[in-house]
């Protein structure tokens, strides 16, 4: 039986809007408060990773994993998030990445369901600020899952809310952990970024401005068995 493409599930940061700089600044401030060096290169390792897992990576970088109780770690993560929320207050629809509005409009016209699978606990707020939350049929964020990316749970949860099978979905990500999550969910994976960074992806666009449903559908159909 030939499967039809029925849904597209987006990551948020780096795919719909670029809040990576705000995350970087908030994590950097926290790390420096703890006496831990924090670079843009290290920040790349946190893309697509949950807040608590990101904190653990930062503490490990400074050799301070055992210096804090679980309760203290929760407070540190909350401190980072409060800083981040202050930074993103000025987000507007103009912060949607190039090509994304047009791509979403094309999908809606074709009757394709839209989902969001974000490791951020602030996904609903960011989508509201961008003015596109109501265009999405399902939104799943880190508050609703137990396992973060690269575990497939978040994409499977989004697919379930959309009432579609995994092989009827594509996922779009800009992080290797996210692409792994999509593939482990049994979905078609589209990556945004440098091709050499995503060997597991089914299709790679160098930027969101290149997103094309026709190109995606062509490769998706070729992958059908």
UniProtKB/TrEMBL annotation:
<feature type="binding site">
    <location>
        <begin position="118"/>
        <end position="122"/>
    </location>
    <ligand>
        <name>substrate</name>
    </ligand>
</feature>
<feature type="binding site">
    <location>
        <position position="149"/>
    </location>
    <ligand>
        <name>substrate</name>
    </ligand>
</feature>
<feature type="site" description="Important for catalytic activity and assists the phosphoryl transfer reaction to Asp8 by balancing charge and orienting the reacting groups">
    <location>
        <position position="149"/>
    </location>
</feature>
<keyword id="KW-0119">Carbohydrate metabolism</keyword>
<keyword id="KW-0597">Phosphoprotein</keyword>
<feature type="binding site">
    <location>
        <position position="173"/>
    </location>
    <ligand>
        <name>Mg(2+)</name>
    </ligand>
</feature>
<comment type="similarity">
    <text>Belongs to the HAD-like hydrolase superfamily. CbbY/CbbZ/Gph/YieH family.</text>
</comment>
<feature type="binding site">
    <location>
        <begin position="11"/>
        <end position="13"/>
    </location>
    <ligand>
        <name>substrate</name>
    </ligand>
</feature>
<dbReference type="InterPro" id="IPR006439">
    <property type="entry name" value="HAD-SF_hydro_IA"/>
</dbReference>
<dbReference type="InterPro" id="IPR010976">
    <property type="entry name" value="B-phosphoglucomutase_hydrolase"/>
</dbReference>
<feature type="binding site">
    <location>
        <position position="27"/>
    </location>
    <ligand>
        <name>substrate</name>
    </ligand>
</feature>
<feature type="active site" description="Proton donor/acceptor">
    <location>
        <position position="13"/>
    </location>
</feature>
<dbReference type="InterPro" id="IPR023214">
    <property type="entry name" value="HAD_sf"/>
</dbReference>
<dbReference type="GO" id="GO:0005737">
    <property type="term" value="C:cytoplasm"/>
</dbReference>
<protein>
    <recommendedName>
        <fullName>Beta-phosphoglucomutase</fullName>
        <ecNumber>5.4.2.6</ecNumber>
    </recommendedName>
</protein>
<dbReference type="InterPro" id="IPR036412">
    <property type="entry name" value="HAD-like_sf"/>
</dbReference>
<keyword id="KW-0963">Cytoplasm</keyword>
<dbReference type="Pfam" id="PF00702">
    <property type="entry name" value="Hydrolase"/>
</dbReference>
<feature type="binding site">
    <location>
        <begin position="46"/>
        <end position="51"/>
    </location>
    <ligand>
        <name>substrate</name>
    </ligand>
</feature>
<feature type="site" description="Important for catalytic activity and assists the phosphoryl transfer reaction to Asp8 by balancing charge and orienting the reacting groups">
    <location>
        <position position="118"/>
    </location>
</feature>
<dbReference type="InterPro" id="IPR023198">
    <property type="entry name" value="PGP-like_dom2"/>
</dbReference>
<feature type="binding site">
    <location>
        <position position="11"/>
    </location>
    <ligand>
        <name>Mg(2+)</name>
    </ligand>
</feature>
<feature type="binding site">
    <location>
        <position position="80"/>
    </location>
    <ligand>
        <name>substrate</name>
    </ligand>
</feature>
<dbReference type="GO" id="GO:0008801">
    <property type="term" value="F:beta-phosphoglucomutase activity"/>
</dbReference>
<keyword id="KW-0413">Isomerase</keyword>
<keyword id="KW-0479">Metal-binding</keyword>
<keyword id="KW-0460">Magnesium</keyword>
<dbReference type="GO" id="GO:0000287">
    <property type="term" value="F:magnesium ion binding"/>
</dbReference>
<feature type="binding site">
    <location>
        <position position="174"/>
    </location>
    <ligand>
        <name>Mg(2+)</name>
    </ligand>
</feature>
<feature type="binding site">
    <location>
        <position position="54"/>
    </location>
    <ligand>
        <name>substrate</name>
    </ligand>
</feature>
<feature type="binding site">
    <location>
        <position position="13"/>
    </location>
    <ligand>
        <name>Mg(2+)</name>
    </ligand>
</feature>
<feature type="active site" description="Nucleophile">
    <location>
        <position position="11"/>
    </location>
</feature>
<dbReference type="GO" id="GO:0005975">
    <property type="term" value="P:carbohydrate metabolic process"/>
</dbReference>
<dbReference type="InterPro" id="IPR010972">
    <property type="entry name" value="Beta-PGM"/>
</dbReference>
<dbReference type="InterPro" id="IPR051600">
    <property type="entry name" value="Beta-PGM-like"/>
</dbReference>
